Amino acid sequence: MIQLSDRILSMEESATLAMSRKSRELRAQGKDIISLSLGEPDFFTPEFIKKAANEAMEQNYTMYTPVPGYDDLRDAIANKFNRDNGIPYKREHIVVSTGAKQSIANLVMAVINPGDEVIIPAPYWVSYAEIVKVAGGIPVVVPTSIESDFKFTPEQFKASITSKSKMMMFSSPCNPTGTVYTKEELRALADVLKAHPNMVVMSDEIYEHINFVGHHYSMAQFEDVFDQIVTVNGVSKAWAMTGWRVGYIGAPKEIADACNKIQGQFTSGTCSIAQRATIAAVNADPAILKDMVKAFESRRELVLAALNDMPGVKCNRPGGAFYVFPDISSFFGKSVDGKTIGSAEDLCMYLLDKGVALVSGEAFGDPTCLRISYAASEETLTEAMRRVKNALAELK
Ligand code: PMP
Ligand code: GLU
Q: What does the DSSP assignment read for 73-92?
């Protein structure tokens, strides 16, 4: 019998993808399941982007591309970073990959040696810790609390650094909490980083444009830490392009070159047609996303109002992304029909049985919460919240 590698055996399946698979299977069996498990916009890719892809095919953009992406795409991305984020990246700093997920994997493989510590404030996005483990790194998970809007403080950052620390990874707007860091808060974290010139920060900004609190700030805009930050971004979320598989980094040149080298052995450049379409997306004025952001904002209000009306459920007020991460620990120990809820995972399975698929907080490093993705119509969300409320009320 073939024995699988220790590497793969130590890794968990992606909880978000696992839950979306499970709800698809139940639906195929004829069950009425509302899935709020996957972080995926329910909008279609804008027409002008699809048109760019059609043109690319007609113009025979069908061959291998340069490994880090077409030159004009990398220029367009560098221009986007200058325009939207005030970060002076140039073509040489940009690597385009098969989704931001690959960008993160490339970075971790390029920087982390076995035994290196990677500081990950929790709640964090499911794949961070697993990618670090695959590289032989040690995820050092630092919990934050709902009371402080799940923000990682400079004091916590400082206290978690050891001689083995190599990287810190975080997202703003955050998946799963929706937390958005202010410029001052990022500056204070950058001050800690600056005192540790051998450390790098991965700033995951994929929800940049889905922001209800005003301006988005990037840590790499601070000149004195520019050489220590890798900015991850992509077109999946803002431009409703999850299936096209295009993500990118802006990084110090040595790290960009290293990511390019890994990508050249693992996957080569991402899909040529998707790259041409991405030029249209990153060159577009983000102001055209206004209506989509408004739709997400009113869904946030709907879900928050419903959750705040459920006794025992505690929420922060997310400033961005399309998730709410309520604390549901007050239900632990409660029962229905002889079944006792012992964990967020149990509650998730119970709610799935009641027709709503959510993701347990365990996979995001916080076992007291659940993640709700509100990238669904208001009608769907209203029905989902009704089901959750009734199900929770049955627990005694
Ligand atoms: N980072 C975060 C925080 C995400 O939520 C996602 C969603 N999949 C990704 C990265 C990866 O995005 P992509 O679809 O571009 O791989
Ligand atoms: N990022 C999304 C989520 O968190 C998509 C799923 C995934 O890539 O894991 O649900």
A: HHHHHHHHHHHHH-----GG
